[in-house]
Prior knowledge:
The structure is a homodimer of 334-residue chains.
Chain A: E1 6-12, E2 16-23, E3 28-35, H1 42-59, E4 69-72, E5 76-77, E6 82-84, E7 93-95, H2 96-101, E8 108-111, H3 113-124, E9 133-138, E10 142-148, E11 151-152, H4 189-202, H5 219-227, H6 231-255, E12 259-263, H7 271-284, E13 294-297, H8 305-318, H9 322-332
Parallel strand pairs in A: 1-4, 4-8, 9-12, 12-13
Antiparallel strand pairs in A: 1-2, 2-3, 5-6, 6-7, 9-10, 10-11
Amino acid sequence: MFNEEVVLGIDIGGTNTVFGFVDKNGNCINQGVIPTNSNESAENLFDRLFYKVKEIMKNNPELSEIAGIGIGAPNANYYKGTVEQPPNLNWGTVNVIEIVKKYFQVPVAITNDANAAAIGEMQFGSAKGMKDFIVITLGTGLGSGIVSNGKLIYGHDGFAGEIGHVCVIPDGRECGCRRKGCLETYASATGIRRTVFELLANKSSQSSLRNFSFNELTSKSIYEAAVEGDPIALAAFDYTGKILGKALANAVNYTSPEAIILFGGLASAGEYIFEPVKKYMEENILNIFKNKVNVIPSTLTEGNAAVLGAAALIWNELNHTPTMKSEVENWDLM
Amino acid sequence: MFNEEVVLGIDIGGTNTVFGFVDKNGNCINQGVIPTNSNESAENLFDRLFYKVKEIMKNNPELSEIAGIGIGAPNANYYKGTVEQPPNLNWGTVNVIEIVKKYFQVPVAITNDANAAAIGEMQFGSAKGMKDFIVITLGTGLGSGIVSNGKLIYGHDGFAGEIGHVCVIPDGRECGCRRKGCLETYASATGIRRTVFELLANKSSQSSLRNFSFNELTSKSIYEAAVEGDPIALAAFDYTGKILGKALANAVNYTSPEAIILFGGLASAGEYIFEPVKKYMEENILNIFKNKVNVIPSTLTEGNAAVLGAAALIWNELNHTPTMKSEVENWDLM
């Protein structure tokens, strides 16, 4: 029935929505991008998106059929096919799979971007062949996708994998979730900026970072300062790595992963972040886990990693065990 | 080939080793106990144990065949079938499945007691019908078994589920694992005794607990004092519940369970421990998980819960998906 060659991967971000036609080997054959227009409805977004998608399908005979559609979106519920009160989109709660089914009668799956990244790493990236690992996405916040025994952990309600909201400093920094001391207030692009400002306040060292306003400062500028040997930037990476390393030492106690994969902007700082993360993780890890857990970078290319993740999500469903397959088939009847 | 009616469940403790013949419905048809003699070898223990087991099998024709053997033991590695450097047994690292196979050519599975308890709850207890839950055993230490999507999480090395060693108070109480601030130094029978002594030192309230030495004090005596309204005992339960509740609020972020089941001595204090655990968990939990996670007591009878758990472990293997079945069959060739 389905063309087994290509699926459509869609990544819905606050600013842009990116899509790509992806084959089983993770090759992105054709892709495109449209503005998300976060104030508009989900229906409007998908109408604009699929107009563009169908145009490409018409002009490229090899893409005239797709085997399925995978979607990464904020606050996505894998079980229900919904997106629920996403913080950056004016959608409320909406059933995305129902909307998509009006345009394409193929299997559709949706999850959040960190979960999609985890499946992407398993299918196409650093986690190929692994059955137990954790992906940590270090973006504006900290997302996580946990794979155990070869399967993503969705949890009872579809929202598992919120390691960014584990409390690491009691009564610590205010978090967007209205609680205090969450990991993502320290270990994320925003977190390291907050750390730089704390260090600039507490220390008297010269630093090129004293010329940036909070709004101007990016994790890239902190990285560039670190490369120049800036003491505040170096201390900020060390502190970020310390908080993240200790948190990962705790995380290992839950699912005992073979590897932890760091993904996203902050992870591109390379050894400036990996070295302290590994050091503090090993220093704080339970004896039985010592020197067992690799901390490694993502090998999905940053540019279309989110689309690859979304595509991997649906490839994973299509190739799955009989149970999963029948679930996918049931979705067609929705 | 196998008698499908009965399996043998074995729980190896530091003092006693308990065994029972358990049917598919969790009925313990016959049972026994021998001293573990922790200074002797594993071979010696199993030799004494199976002598007794075979005697029972000879005298009870309905028990003349068993379908499998499940074992709960400290530091047990599910994947390798080994027990590795158990703290209370003078065994070193030993392959238990190989030893057992000399006596019985049936499928054998081994895991630690908290994991066995989790499978026991799923098969026979509070977690019947649940696919995502966590069992916390509150004994001398704090053990945990995490079930996700209907399967126990063993992790890459077989040692997943060490929530007792998540650091909850940076630089907190010394733990047997040689680290500081582990959850089990606060939330366990030993933990609440330490809390009582801290409170007795810091507060000046009258308390019947001022008559106990540290070695005399038990969690049962603290419970009895709490029932009498003793302010130190009540404060100790509140503090224990606060630390555990906050830790569970964090734990939910990983696997988003439907329920958390408390098991073991301290859990029998009922509302004295459940009420503060629930209160502080809800106060500290991420919004999307609020009022979703039940905290409930185990319904396995304390007396033979460990044996039921060990029996459930092997029933679970025997009834499993084709993949698991073939693994079990392979074990026969070991």
